[in-house]
Design a protein that fits this description.
mainly alpha; Arc Repressor Mutant, subunit A; about 70% helix
Length: about 190
């Protein structure tokens, strides 16, 4: 990946190809975040286009090029929320959960999934269903931390909230996923 700060300086200096380079370098990450939040590839592609249009129009307002990734993810999150409000379907996560280090009090999505001795595809389906009923803030905290591997400080920055709020959203979201998984497993065993 090229130096983002230099690429931004080139774009702001009039080099339009530099923006194309930013898109190439960040498009997959923006798509991944949007897809995990929205659960729909078409909607995620729309968010990618909307996000980069916003970036193109407002990159000159970015105060510190070092914070580009946080700024980009915040724009993506705002477009995801707007898209979510405009539709009625629920989240659908269709990929396996990557193994991450445990979080505070030993609670992480990976630890919840590891407790299941099931077929990986069945586990993915269970996690998808367990996350369906979460609030947007709880779901986004989990996605940013557990799927994108951000630190809690980065989660707080992207979500534009205090660190304690990010911790709370992650913890309560994971507790809700845990409850939902238990409920789904009980329902499946009857």
């Amino acid at each position: 990946m090229a130096d983002v700060e230099e690429t931004i300086r080139r774009f702001l200096g009039g080099d339009v190809e530099a923006f194309d380079q930013l898109v190439r370098e960040w498009e997959a990450k923006v798509f991944n975040l949007a897809w995990r939040f929205l659960g729909n590839r078409h909607d995620a592609q729309d968010v990618v286009q909307e996000t980069f249009l916003s970036v193109f129009q407002s990159l000159n307002q970015l105060r510190d090029p070092k914070s580009f990734s946080t700024w980009l993810y915040r724009i993506t999150l705002n477009h995801c929320r707007a898209n979510w409000r405009n539709r009625s379907s629920n989240l659908s996560l269709d990929e396996c959960v990557a193994d991450k280090e445990g979080e505070e009090k030993g609670l992480s999505l990976a630890s919840l999934v590891a407790a299941q001795s099931r077929d990986p595809l069945e586990t993915v389906d269970l996690v998808r269903k367990a996350m369906m009923g979460l609030s947007q803030d709880h779901r986004m905290a989990i996605i940013l931390k557990e799927y994108l591997g951000m630190s809690l400080a980065e989660v707080a920055e992207v979500m534009d909230c205090p660190l304690s709020t990010a911790k709370s959203r992650l913890y309560h979201g994971l507790r809700e996923v845990q409850k939902n998984l238990k409920r789904l497993l009980r329902a499946g065993m009857q």
